[in-house]
Structure to design on (615 residues):
């Protein structure tokens, strides 16, 4: 299937507008291949550090690197499967009930993951606890269903799920490693410090989650400051239909270049 | 400096006539002057700590002050904002933090605590005047939750320890441990014994004079109520603080511990013992009165002090923790914007019309 055909298929989707990526990649009609979609999820629109989605599991389960891996992989499995299925049935779902339909699909895959984890890795299952069933309402998964899978072909949706999932997992491993190192002196259970300092237990407590997330986010923003551009409403896939004048007024009020 | 205390002090008088909105009267009170007064007021407490716990306390003070000033300098530098170490507020934060630490605290932990106080407690929110929690208490609580064992390892107070042998490090210090007056009171109150290997013989409560003059175990700055009181009176005389917060804080804490501090009987508690022990004086005079984290109006200050006193009494009497001054002040810090909102003073000529 060529890119052109894919874009036509996307055009027949629920909302009839181009996918999020086409706008982000300067609106090229044939530019975005699968690798670009993957890369977009991993780096350019990393769900944790760029979209700031899924912060609840990010803060709650990253008390160790292993928990981060478990949570990231579980979410990635659900994300890929739900993206594929939702992309397959995107022309069958009536627009008005699309959110309940998405949730039903996602809940089905979360149940599968939940039972699999319970059966094969009970220790991880108990460590992640309530946050496995809560993947149902993980806003990364719902956001990708709403903004990508229901407007793009199966292959592109799968690539998007893989990219977003890997990006989410990498972010959780990064934050989990930082918290585990500072709070317990280990990474993946390996003692790296030989007890040179007594670890700060605060980093394993809820405040430590906010501190670690904020610190990593600040560093990433600082490093990539010169590479990011404020693109405003043109990159927004929601197309709220706001007029130029209103947008300019809002931009003045918010001082953010028109991004809504 | 845009955030230097009372409005109008940061004005640039480089023109002959300045056309501004009110207020038009500028005073000579600057942040630096206020902070210098606070530092002067803390000298008795620092000396008392050194007298009873040894010269190492002076080292702890120096380390935290240096850590706070360095953290302030570098965080302002990284954020590309003007250097504010000159207003001495970071030094005050460092000194207050040191007075809230046990004498045997590891020095590197004190450095981390000082950096956390300035960076997390203050500079992340924009620096002086913008912080919503007392930075020194943020540093203390970060350390308390991170290294609970080191932060509750009390060494006994020995009169004249300043001129005794200086403990070389952590090992020498924790050879002898002691219980704080509040931990003793709690053990007696709940009827349970202390766990840290203390026999019943050491369960005798210290006298009022020991609590007031100094000589009880505890944080560097809380051994002598007298020393803190001297500093507090100096601040009152210099009009750096008003009486509202300390009076409401101490009064409500005394009333509640008197009413509910007795075992089984109403009004059987010992309010004097409760007030003189722990960090109540230090908190009431130096921590709860921090400008940017306390209400603006007199009525608001009374509410703030009342809330601190109630929370302190509740934590001391009804939780497992013997001391609650830090947490009560931090909780009330968070409520300050609400207090300010509901205590907006009526403007001249305003208010409800007469029927």
């Amino acid at each position: 299937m060529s890119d052109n055909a894919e874009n036509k298929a996307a055009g027949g989707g629920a909302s009839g507008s181009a996918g999020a990526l086409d706008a982000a990649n300067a609106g090229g009609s044939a530019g975005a291949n699968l690798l670009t979609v993957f890369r977009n999820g991993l780096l350019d629109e990393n769900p944790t550090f760029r979209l700031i989605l899924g912060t609840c599991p990010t803060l709650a389960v990253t008390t160790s690197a292993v928990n981060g891996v478990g949570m990231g992989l579980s979410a990635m499995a659900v994300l890929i499967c739900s993206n594929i299925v939702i992309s397959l049935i995107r022309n069958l779902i009536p627009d008005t009930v699309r959110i309940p339909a998405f949730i039903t699909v996602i809940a089905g895959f979360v149940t599968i993951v939940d039972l699999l984890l319970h059966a094969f890795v009970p220790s991880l299952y108990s460590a992640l606890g309530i946050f496995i069933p809560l993947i149902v309402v993980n806003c990364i998964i719902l956001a990708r269903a709403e903004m990508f899978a229901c407007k793009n072909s199966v292959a592109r949706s799968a690539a998007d799920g893989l990219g977003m999932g890997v990006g989410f997992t990498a972010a959780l491993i990064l934050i989990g490693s930082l918290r585990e190192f500072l709070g317990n002196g280990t990474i993946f259970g390996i003692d790296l410090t030989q007890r040179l300092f007594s670890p700060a237990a605060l980093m394993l407590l809820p405040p430590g989650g906010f501190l670690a997330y904020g610190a990593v986010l600040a560093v990433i923003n600082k490093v990539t400051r010169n590479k990011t551009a404020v693109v405003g409403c043109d990159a927004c896939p929601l197309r709220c239909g706001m007029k130029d004048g209103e947008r300019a007024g809002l931009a003045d009020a918010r001082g953010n270049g028109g991004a809504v | 400096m845009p955030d230097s205390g009372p409005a109008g002090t940061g004005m640039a008088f480089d023109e002959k006539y300045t056309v501004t909105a009110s207020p038009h009267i500028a005073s000579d009170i600057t942040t630096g002057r206020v902070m210098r007064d606070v530092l002067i007021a803390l000298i008795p407490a620092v000396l008392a700590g050194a007298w009873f716990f040894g010269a190492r306390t002076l080292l702890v003070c120096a380390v935290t002050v240096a850590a706070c000033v360095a953290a302030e300098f570098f965080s302002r530098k990284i954020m590309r904002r003007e250097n504010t170490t000159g207003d001495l507020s970071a030094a005050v934060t460092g000194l207050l933090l040191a007075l809230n630490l046990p004498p045997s605290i590891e020095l590197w932990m004190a450095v981390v605590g000082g950096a956390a106080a300035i960076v997390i407690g203050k500079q992340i929110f924009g620096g002086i005047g913008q912080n919503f929690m007392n930075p020194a208490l943020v540093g203390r609580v970060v350390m308390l939750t991170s290294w609970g064992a080191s932060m509750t390892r009390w060494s006994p107070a020995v009169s004249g320890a300043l001129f005794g042998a200086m403990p070389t490090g952590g090992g020498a210090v924790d050879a002898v441990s002691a219980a704080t007056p509040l931990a003793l009171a709690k053990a007696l109150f709940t009827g349970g014994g202390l766990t840290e290997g203390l026999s019943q013989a050491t369960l005798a409560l210290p006298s009022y004079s020991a609590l007031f003059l100094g000589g009880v175990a505890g944080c560097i700055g809380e051994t002598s109520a007298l020393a803190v009181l001297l500093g507090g009176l100096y601040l009152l005389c210099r009009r750096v603080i008003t009486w509202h917060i300390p009076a409401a804080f101490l009064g409500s804490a005394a009333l509640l511990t008197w009413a509910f501090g007795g075992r089984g009987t109403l009004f059987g508690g010992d309010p004097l013992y409760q007030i003189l022990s722990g960090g109540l004086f230090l908190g009431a005079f130096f921590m709860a009165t921090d400008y940017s984290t306390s209400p603006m109006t007199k009525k608001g200050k009374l509410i703030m002090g009342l809330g601190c006193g109630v929370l302190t009494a509740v934590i001391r009497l009804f939780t497992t923790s013997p001391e609650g001054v830090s947490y009560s002040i931090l909780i009330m810090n968070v409520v300050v914007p609400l207090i300010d909102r509901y205590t907006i003073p009526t403007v001249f000529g305003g208010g409800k019309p007469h029927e």
